[in-house]
Amino acid sequence: MTPREADLALLLESVDCVVAAYTTGPHSGGTSDFIVELRPYTGGTIARVHYAMRRLLTHEECGRVLLRDADLRPRPAFMLRVRSLALDDAERRSALRRAAERTTGPVDPEEEEAGVEPSDLTLLTVGTSFTLPGHLRVVTNRVRNTLSNDDAFEHIEADDVDLVIWDAGFALRAASRLRSLLAVHPEKGEMIVILAPALQLEDPRERLDAERLNSVRLAREPITAIDAANFLRWEIRARSQEWRLRCRRRG
């Protein structure tokens, strides 16, 4: 598998409506370089896949990707000549490394001044998707995961992590305790990111008490291996100089 094929395969793994992806090969002579099968096949899923691919491909290259309904039968004859984009372990590691390199980008002046990089952060994920810690480890190897709100509070109170990425459902179950903690230590709100589903209309911070959680940030979009470095860079930029200095001292 070529690096370009592997990079696209890795990216499409993060799109839940993608059932399978194929390459037509370098000598196909056809109008499509890749074929991606979707379930369900709707306007919304087509748009989602298109915008995901635009992180890696140009508009013209996206035009050479055929999107088709995975449930459409009979399958066309040309599907007999395609090759599946299925990553082996070595290809996955290489693709993840390239993804991290692509998202590094230029250093923001404020980040440079504060001396905080995504790779410097110590992270705790609470009750989130089991794939999230792996995505974040592409950027930093200091990632812990817990399914216990008690563990989360212990780390926050001990001040031994930089960011707590908290599933909204878990955070809401600990709302009373979280409000009490931030009433006494409002600065600890900067350590917290509430991770809510993109389709969830209600802002979970309001149920947690928006006035006390004004420093708690909300993440709506899924954090994938492709986006992990950009996500952490954004969180660094959004926080105060005091938070960054605490990160430096902790590091």
Describe this structure in words.
This protein is α/β, with parallel strands linked by helices and 251 residues long. It has two domains: 3-91, no CATH class; 110-250, Rossmann fold. Helix content is 42%, strand content 15%. The protein is built from twelve helices and nine strands. The protein has helices at residues 3-13, 43-53, 59-62, 89-104, 109-114, 132-136, 149-158, 168-173, 175-184, 204-208, 228-238, 241-250; strands at residues 18-23, 34-38, 65-69, 83-84, 123-126, 143-146, 163-167, 192-195, 217-219. The strands form two sheets. It has a five-stranded parallel β-sheet with strand order 6-5-7-8-9. Helix 6 (132-136) links the parallel strand 5 (123-126) and strand 6. Helix 1 crosses helix 4 (89-104). The protein is elongated. The model is unreliable at 105-113 (pLDDT under 50).
